[in-house]
Design goal:
globular; TagF_N; 7-stranded parallel sheet; 39% helix; 16% strand; transferase; 9-stranded mixed sheet; cell membrane; 735 residues
């Protein structure tokens, strides 16, 4: 018999669902099942559930053809559950590692109808705030179970479905199910507590309640928040139906919770728009009069008590004025704190800062001039030159949208590397500030500087520069060693400028939504920079080899390791001469450092021993076309090279340390693009033994390509141009 059935509804949670499922399935306790409900989600949530089910028999996906909402989706999962207990976990939350054995021990020991567990609110800025568990129970209740009338303070715990495990037969016997609509937890969680004979409390944090920056109902304005009233009406209908035998004096405490909840919703400016607040308040007043217990209820003290009395009297104007005064007081406090912390560096400005100040004033002046309706500005790798996805989009735009004038931003030391005929400005010059201020389109594979403002009518396109293995964006907050010096608040301000995010595959889309939560539109079209690889001919490959001085019969291996932010200057254990020797007499080894090391590059040129340093060689696509095999570690190069359908070897000598210090999005060693080596002797053996081209490596590569390279058909740049510059719909371009 399964002990716990997890019911996980999924709707627009593709960026978080993997973390949720992993947190359940990776627990040191296996007597569970996961019923994942794809609530007709328009993203890849359903595909993720199917993927997990294919590799873990404990996962049972349910694909709904129509969206039914969170409550009915949970009911569908409940109907399919077989466990002794049901735990409703939302698809964007996740369990604390190692919590399940403790939960299981308590369930076996006390057999409660309901077991309440603690949680933390995990905010998008990596701040965690504790729940009210310690306030409600200053002293832990221990293992003893109780009925709600014995501990009515239990009602003050958050009324959600995911902070409690409920005995399945108890739910069936009581006929307790979720109602449709928003705030569905209210009419489920409170009745569950009122009907339970045995309530247990596990004073241990077991769940991370994700506070999403975008997409959450609690951060969505609209009149659907009025549905909270219907949910509370259901609670009071049950109170009337069950009568004193069950309710036993609970009505005053339940009433107080109702008014508290109403005021919480009303006080949240991200939920109730200003024009809806008066009618919302009027409904609170009506419910106050309708459900007020004859014996009264415990009115809170202080400011909260004042609010309750104003609700009782129906005095909206006074209530509104009190709220406005309180907000003004809070703003004044925050402003005073900012002034106190502010440091004015004017007296210490050197000549360079003075020049920058003048140029920034020039930029601000240019912001008042009209946008240039034909100007598109391109940049790549912090102005390192003409490359990557922006270069491919630029070339496609010149062909498909010749009315758009493309201008590149480059560093002064990269001017010579621009192709003939490419218009450019040098970073830091007046022309640079002018085009940034007036461009209609801004295209970059990283972010533009913080001073750049998002003008109405301008379009910012973030192309990214690789499918992520390592964690990115906000996810780096959990890995501070690899995120030293990052300002995540500034990062989010930059992300808020994006109108479009170009994604190479559905996996990247999921991770970008999680790492960079904002209201941009995703263009899941493949990577423009890979168009050349997808369409490459044998003659192009021959020319690429000839340009490197490589003959047609030589066996070429490209070694391209990634940068390690947490270990600057570190190099993997690697002996070029020994690897070259393992390739045989016709072997040639190309070595390319990460672009972060571009100032550390050694002189380029052929060597007598068949080892060639190509760190300074651009474009990198030539190297891919020239190579017969790619050896890499955690670099996004593997996803690009995979388009060519040639052997890839993962050389990961520090995998365990890397995944702990830097963080990764998937287990590269479990889902590799080919053969794997975890030490240098193993890498040599991959080539000595022929495993580099063995059947296992071939099968791994095909699985990898199907997952990550399916969209790279040679027309990704065209799809971006047609959508962004020509305004064509997805129907025309086919994505």
């Amino acid at each position: 018999m399964t002990l716990i059935s997890f019911v996980v509804p999924a709707f627009k949670v593709q960026g978080y669902l993997r973390e949720c499922l992993d947190s359940i399935l990776d627990q040191p306790f296996e007597d569970v099942e996961v019923i994942g409900i794809d609530d007709a989600s328009p993203d890849d949530s359903g595909e993720i559930l199917d993927e997990y089910a294919a590799r873990d028999p404990r996962v049972h996906p349910v694909r709904l053809t129509e969206n039914v909402g969170l409550g009915p989706a949970r009911n569908i999962g409940l109907d399919r559950a077989v466990g002794d207990y049901v735990w409703f976990v939302d698809g964007d939350d996740w369990l604390v590692p190692g919590c399940l054995p403790h939960v299981a021990d308590r369930l076996h020991a006390t057999r409660p109808d309901v077991l309440l567990v603690d949680h933390v609110r995990a905010h998008w800025n990596n701040v965690g705030t504790r729940s009210a568990m310690r306030d409600v129970f200053p002293e832990s209740p221990g293992e003893a179970t109780f009925r709600l009338p014995e501990r009515p303070e239990t009602l003050r715990l958050l009324h959600t479905a995911w902070n409690r495990l409920v005995r399945r037969e108890f739910l069936v016997e009581q006929g307790l199910r979720f109602a449709p609509g928003w705030y569905e937890d209210v009419s489920f969680s409170y009745p569950v507590l009122m009907a339970a004979e045995r309530i247990g409390v596990l004073d241990r944090v077991c769940l991370n309640y994700r506070q999403r920056r975008t997409g959450a109902i609690t951060r969505t304005r609209g009149d659907r928040h009025f549905e909270v009233f219907a949910q509370w009406h259901r609670v009071f209908r049950l109170l009337d139906q069950w009568g004193p035998a069950v309710v036993n004096g609970l009505r005053p405490a339940v009433f107080e919770r109702m008014i508290w909840h109403y005021l919480t919703v009303l006080g949240n400016g991200e939920r109730i728009a200003a024009e809806l607040r008066p009618p919302f308040f009027a409904q609170i007043h009506a419910d106050y009069a309708r459900f007020l217990p004859p014996e009264g209820y415990p009115v809170p003290s202080g400011l909260e008590g004042v609010k309750h009395r104003l609700v009782a009297a129906g005095r909206w104007r006074t209530f509104s004025a009190l709220r406005a005064a309180h907000q003004a007081e809070e703003r004044a406090r925050r402003s005073a704190r900012r002034v106190k912390r502010r440091v004015l560096p004017v007296a210490r400005l050197n000549a360079r800062r003075a020049r920058d100040a003048v140029l920034h004033e020039y930029y601000r002046a240019e912001l008042h001039r009209p946008l240039d309706p034909t100007l598109a500005v391109y940049a790549s790798y912090w102005y390192r030159g003409y490359s990557c996805n922006p270069a491919a989009i630029y070339a496609a735009a010149r062909r498909l949208a010749p009315q758009v004038r493309g201008v590149w931003i480059v560093r002064r030391d990269r001017m010579a590397g621009l192709p003939p005929g490419v218009e450019y400005v040098v970073a830091g010059t007046p022309d640079y500030y002018r085009v940034l201020a007036r461009a209609r389109w801004l295209v970059n594979n990283v972010n533009f500087p913080d001073f750049v403002r998002k003008r109405p009518g301008s379009v910012h396109v973030q192309t990214h520069h690789g499918t992520p293995v390592k964690v990115m964006g906000l996810d780096q907050q959990r890995y501070p060693v690899g995120a030293a010096g990052m300002n995540f608040a500034n990062l989010l301000r930059r992300v808020d400028r994006w109108d479009y995010s170009v994604s190479s595959n559905s996996f990247s889309t999921q991770m970008w939504e999680r790492a960079y939560p904002a209201d941009y539109t995703t263009l899941e079209v493949g990577y423009p920079r890979n168009d050349r690889l997808a369409l490459a001919t044998a003659e192009e490959c021959r020319q690429a080899r000839a340009g490197l001085g490589i003959g047609p019969d030589e066996y070429v291996v490209l070694y391209a390791p990634t940068h390690r932010e947490h270990l600057p200057g570190w190099r993997p254990p690697f002996d070029p001469d020994r690897l070259r020797a393992a390739l045989g007499p016709s072997g040639r080894l190309l070595i390319r450092s990460h672009y972060f090391h571009d100032r550390e590059r050694r002189p380029q040129g052929p060597s007598a021993d068949g080892v060639l340093d190509v760190s300074a060689y651009d474009p990198v696509e030539d190297l891919y076309l020239a190579a017969d095999v790619l050896v890499t570690d955690y670099s996004s190069a593997m996803f690009d090279y995979g388009v060519l359908d040639r052997p890839i070897v993962v050389y990961a000598p520090d995998w365990d340390a890397y995944r702990v210090a830097r963080g990764v999005y998937f287990d590269l060693l479990a889902e590799p693009p080919g053969a794997v080596a975890v030490d240098f002797p193993g890498l040599l053996d991959v080539f000595h033994s022929g495993a580099v081209r063995g059947a296992a490596a071939e099968q791994a590569r095909q699985r990898f390509r199907a997952r990550f390279c399916a969209l790279d058909d040679g027309h990704a740049a065209e799809r971006v141009v047609r959508r962004v510059f020509l305004g064509e719909s997805a129907g025309k371009t086919g994505y």
